[in-house]
Amino acid sequence: MITLKSPREIKEMAVSGAILAGMHVGLRDIIKPGVSSWEVEKFARKYFKEHDAIPEQIGFEGYKYATCVSVNDEICHAFPRKNLIFKEGDLVKIDTVVNYHGAMSDSCWSYVVGKSSPEVERLMEVTKNALYLGIDQAQVGNRIGDIGAAIQHYTEDENGYGDVREFIGHGIGPTMHESPNVPHYGEAGKGMRLREGMTITIEPMINTGTWRAVMDDPNGWTARTADGGLSCQYEHTIVITKDGPKILTSQDPAMDEKYLYKFK
């Protein structure tokens, strides 16, 4: 079922999104060479508790952690680990979902540890651009396929990267994963028509090589690139309004001015 959110519900989700965005901003000072990925988990749990929010991922289908901390060839859903120590140049993706008094927000952000490389910088730039190209298409009257087509054309046709198919965006609120599915590939003009009040995530996962993923058998959660190449992800929760898409998880009001949700 797809729920269309009221102005009150959207405002509550924006508060949740602001908490989540603040946690991501705080991680910029945490993610450094020599730090374990478990420190990310500890920071996130502490931050959410201090802001009266709940890490919604804990307990979801048996998942035990507040965050997913995926590094380099890990596409998504990797566990935070005490024995995974960040190294110079690592590409780290942090994904988490916040429940603030019943209002949900979901965002993944990518970070480079220490000094970056041209390969990582380009992949991060293209992936972030793809996210915003997808957001541009999230207009009342457009279709789900318009979002995916814009992302796929830019990442695969224009830049030669692999656009992951196995994991996609989704509706959100009042639960973590709801209809509609929001693929990051597809055909323009196809799929469900977008309506005012829909809240969805757009979260392209882009690989340097093949788009195909393989599962990490030991834990049953972690997905990796099939060829061992790097993977990057950026994700925002947005609401579709008559004035265009509005980002509920913005970390940078200046960059997101065009899409910024204004509290009323």
TrEMBL record:
Residues that bind a divalent metal cation 2: 106, 170, 203, 235
GO cellular component: cytosol
Protein keywords: Aminopeptidase, Hydrolase, Metal-binding, Protease
Residues annotated for a divalent metal cation 1 binding in this entry: 95, 106, 235
Transmembrane domains' residue ranges: none
Cofactors, names only: Co(2+); Zn(2+); Mn(2+); Fe(2+)
Stretches assigned to the Peptidase M24 domain: 12-242
Enzyme Commission number(s) from the entry: 3.4.11.18
CDD domains: MetAP1 (cd01086)
InterPro entries hit by this protein: Creatinase/aminopeptidase-like (IPR036005), Pept_M24 (IPR000994), Pept_M24_MAP (IPR001714), Pept_M24A_MAP1 (IPR002467)
GO BP term (any one): proteolysis
Enzyme class: hydrolase
Cofactor stoichiometry and binding remark: Binds 2 divalent metal cations per subunit. Has a high-affinity and a low affinity metal-binding site. The true nature of the physiological cofactor is under debate. The enzyme is active with cobalt, zinc, manganese or divalent iron ions. Most likely, methionine aminopeptidases function as mononuclear Fe(2+)-metalloproteases under physiological conditions, and the catalytically relevant metal-binding site has been assigned to the histidine-containing high-affinity site.
A GO term, aspect molecular function: metalloaminopeptidase activity
Signal peptide segment: none
Catalysed transformations (reactions): Release of N-terminal amino acids, preferentially methionine, from peptides and arylamides
Positions of substrate binding: 77, 177
Top-rank taxon: Bacteria
Stated family: Belongs to the peptidase M24A family. Methionine aminopeptidase type 1 subfamily.
Assembly, per entry: Monomer.
Role description: Removes the N-terminal methionine from nascent proteins. The N-terminal methionine is often cleaved when the second residue in the primary sequence is small and uncharged (Met-Ala-, Cys, Gly, Pro, Ser, Thr, or Val). Requires deformylation of the N(alpha)-formylated initiator methionine before it can be hydrolyzed.
HAMAP family for the chain: MetAP_1
Name of the protein in its database record: Methionine aminopeptidase
Organism name: Ligilactobacillus araffinosus DSM 20653
Gene behind the chain: map
